[in-house]
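anyone seen this seq b4? input:
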Amino acid sequence: MDTTRAIRPRDKVEAVVSLPGSKSLTHRALIASALAAGESLVTNALVAEDTRLTAQALRKLGAALDWEDTTVRIRGTGGRLKPVAEPLHFGNSGTSHRFFTALVSLGEGEYCLTGTPRLCQRPVGELLAALKLLGVKAVSQRGDGCPPVLVTGGLTGGHTRLSGQVSSQYLSALLLIGPLAPLGVEVEITGELVSRPYVDLTLEVMAAFGISFFRRGYRYFQVPGGQTYQPREYAVEGDASSAAYFWAAAAVTGGRVTVANLSVDSTQGDIDFLSVLARMGCHIESSPAGLTVAGGPLHGITVDMSAMPDQVPTLAVVAAFAQGETVMTGVGHLRHKESDRLAAVATELRKMGGEVEETGDGLLIRGGRPLTGAVIHTYDDHRIAMSFAVAGLSVPGVVIEDPGCVAKSFPEFWRYWETLEG
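predicted toks r here
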């Protein structure tokens, strides 16, 4: 595999693309199918490292998954999970690790969940504390609130709480197991919940598989116990997170890019990246052909990115080409992602001549400065690689290190990107 990839500049990108399925929805649909009693079919599933890790763990816990191209046939467990003697390894997939930290509480005996060195630096202490209030023995093996974690099956359920300020994945994990807890699950959110749209996606998938719940905004969630996930056929829509890189390409080159398999009705949070680009000066079109971004003169904005934190690196790159300051807030938790994304973005943009400041909860970028090519270190972080590919379309000499790290969420990214480079 190539250790670097040079990006070919392009004056004005013109393209129409249909993108792979949503990573977030694929994770959730696979888990709901595996908890159902009977056979489900998930179509347009994303084939990537993270979703493969989820599928691998589900097989070990007793589900049968037959994966052909982007279609997955799943024979579920009915919520009765097998004991697993060896550690469940989740690579660098924080979503998988956090979801399964809760999921294995439905099983029998003790489970060990671990991952890469970086994953084992990412906090899960708040999730472990919430599980303990639901009757689960769940501890950090090293006592530092990070993986590896040891979880003993025996979920009873009841009332628990989360601050909501570290990761929405903790809440999603608890909601997914709620229907199968004897007492159900009630979750009180004591702070400001980050990444709210991802919780909406979790509830959307649960409802699609026959689960009922009650909520009061983003402060209180109740999932009654004694429910059963129902098998069904579930079609995964295109990935809005992946689409953002292609729309950003139109923005920085003054071109035009259509994503054919997404609509404005999507509940994926990153669909709102379109409104951010519109505020910066792009023209957005929704038509039967898909969602189109046409680039225009760009200007800086101030925006709370807490609902779409994955797009902070993408927006940072676009902001470097915009006149004036762009201020992003609400994303201090990005320091605990695959990399410290705030530091990584700031470091790599400065290499190119950009002017960037890290703040307590985000970034400030002074755009419109002349940028130069650079070798971009990707920190084994797929989103750093893909976002800086956008910069290379307008700045000669951008070289992406470790381009293969995109396999985490979008293994075919570079093949799709070639349609933009011409």
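The chain has a mean pLDDT of 96. The domain at 23-220+231-235 is CATH 3.65.10.10 (UDP-n-acetylglucosamine1-carboxyvinyl-transferase; Chain). kinda curious what u guys think
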